[in-house]
Design goal:
With 263 residues, the protein is mainly α. The chain contains ten helices and no strands. Belongs to the MIP/aquaporin (TC 1.A.8) family. AQP11/AQP12 subfamily.
Length: 263
């Protein structure tokens, strides 16, 4: 049975974490380097996903509540990221579109994976405080987790590919939409793919997020995780980008990052 106190503590912890991350973004303002923005935003995303996964898999919250929290978390991320992708495949798509140089993209991807690793340790440290029975229980188990891959590796990779394809397609097709509507479209898509593919692979579709939440879990090898959570989403993003290029012309590229000013 779901413990209301456990859910409340987890939500308060996440609210505080998002508030701190948002404060860093707001206080820094335009002075916040894009690389640091990726670091902060990816850290926020990974921490939230860690906690929602704990509530769902260990805390036993109802599926409807889990989907509601997934939607709200995705909505908060979309509203607060301020241009950060929090996803290596999204960064690579910017390189393909010539919006970023390769050097700039490499730094951002490095920041994303660094934030993913930092988030894993930060969440363990917060749970180690034992602020709720669920946290204390998980800490007592040594923060153990099991693989979310519940199908053959090719099928799980295909599901991750499909999830990444869907999210990337909606992301690309809603870029001209008003932001107040676009964030809901993105959140709804993420929730839908989570509902559809969650039982097969966890529906992570983000290599950095998977590195934080999946790669340390027992049940599969590192190579298995790389195939499902890195290769699958990368191919899904590429398929979406190529399809969109076939259906409509690409906008003129505007390069950011390591560009040189000309006089």
């Amino acid at each position: 049975m779901v413990d209301v106190t456990d859910v409340t503590v987890s939500l308060l912890m996440l609210a505080g974490l998002v508030a701190v991350c948002e404060a860093v973004r707001v206080v820094s303002g335009s002075e916040l380097h894009a690389d640091i923005s990726e670091l902060v935003s990816t850290f926020q995303q990974c921490c939230c996903t860690h906690e929602l996964r704990l509530l769902s898999e260990v805390g036993g919250i109802e599926p409807r509540l889990a989907l509601t929290l997934t939607y709200l978390a995705a909505l908060v991320h979309a509203l607060t990221f301020r241009g950060a992708t929090g996803n290596p495949t999204g960064t690579l798509e910017h390189v393909y579109r010539a919006r970023l140089t390769r050097g700039c993209a490499l730094r951002r991807v490095a920041c994303q994976f660094a934030a993913a690793l930092l988030a894993r340790f930060a969440v363990h440290a917060m749970r180690g405080l034992g602020l709720s029975g669920l946290h204390a229980h998980h800490a007592g188990l040594g923060f153990q987790c099991t693989s979310n891959i519940h199908a053959s590796l090719p099928w799980a990779a295909l599901v991750e590919l499909a999830c990444a394809f869907a999210v990337q397609t909606v992301t690309s097709c809603t870029r001209t939409m008003e932001e107040k509507y676009r964030v809901h479209a993105l959140a709804a898509t993420i929730t839908a793919v989570g509902y559809t593919g969650g039982g097969v692979s966890g529906a992570v579709f983000n290599p950095a997020l998977a590195f934080s939440t999946q790669f340390h879990c027992s049940g599969n090898s590192m190579l298995d995780y790389c195939l499902v959570y890195w290769v699958g989403p990368l191919l899904g993003m590429m398929a979406s980008v190529l399809l969109i290029d076939k259906l409509r012309p690409s906008p003129s590229p505007h390069l950011h990052g390591d560009t040189k000013k000309t006089s």
